[in-house]
Amino acid sequence: MNIQTKNPLPPCIIGTWAWGGGAAGAKLIFGRRTDNQQLYGTFTRAMENGFTFWDTAEVYGQGASERVLSECLHLVPGARVSTKHSPGRSFKPGAMEKSLANSCQRLGIDAPDLYFLHNHSNIAENTRAAVPLLKSGKIRSLGLSNVSLEEIETAAGILTSSGFAVGAVQNHYSLLSNPDQQAPILKWCHENGVPFFSYMVLEQGALSGRYDAAHPFPAFCMRSMRFPRRRFRSIEPLLEQIRSLATTYNLPSSQIPIAWARAKGTVPIIGLTRPSHADDLAAGSRITLRMDEIENLEKIARSTGVIIKGSWEP
Fold it and tell me: What is the DSSP letter of 294?
């Protein structure tokens, strides 16, 4: 089943990678800790603004993100949730079912609305392993993350033969991720009615307007390694254009790359850690960039020569 077959998706999905501590959590990846009370307030405000779909993963803080989100799910009813299984390099029968059970326990739910394969390892074997979970209702829809078009087509063929469909595709997509490479995948998604969830649209804050060469990321975290001062200097023309458009639309700079990603036909996954961020996202979701503004952003992004790609991407 496609994830929006019954219920339309909101304009943005809310991501929780920065929620909770632990390994691969907020401190290591983002260089700061998060306050749970603040996150509870953020969840409530986002839900009030209509952002009712929440994305997490077993590896985010090694379960910490799922646990914090679980506490939030009791605050306001009506949230939908996606989480992810990270397959190992070698396929192991039963690993997905165990991973799913652990995630559901941490989240306090019976079944996720969308369950992603977090990487492309053994895509055929892992897709086949998901079919019994779909048939039993333990997962409501299967998504694919960090995958190529060939891998999507492989998984889609397996699911179709069993009476199911790809629920969503979740890949890295930003002005600095060489979005042209994702164009064939986006085309496939649109032709097949499959939502494309774009993650790292703001490059973990590098395109948010909060940071630049004079105001870099906190030291000793993944963000600071990916965006040292020299890289911020390289993308300054892009940051300047984003600031200019933000002034035109009377919005925070963070909303311009998000509006660009929506205009490209994707559903952005945006990490929120403060209630005010939810208000900003609601305001930004009301605007539509003009085609010339979109093209100019892309032209400037290409001219920087900066292309960001994670080691986990195909």
Answer: H
More confident position, 83 or 33: 83
Residue at 121: amino acid letter: S
Q: Confirm if 277 and 205 have CB atoms less than 8 A apart.
A: no
Check residue 203 and report its DSSP letter: G
Domains and CATH numbers, the chain: 13-303 (3.20.20.100)
| Residue 83 to residue 286: CA distance in whole angstroms | 27
Mean pLDDT (whole number) for 119-139: 98
Query: What pLDDT, in 10s, does the model give residues 187-218?
Result: 999 999 999 999 999 999 999 999 999 999 98
280, containing H or E segment: helix 275-284
Please tell me the chain's helix, strand, coil percentages from 3-state DSSP, rounded to the nearest 5: 45, 10, 40
Q: Give the integer Cα–Cα distance in Å for 286 and 257.
A: 14
- Do residues 68 and 54 lie in contact, with contact meaning Cβ atoms separated by under 8 Å? no
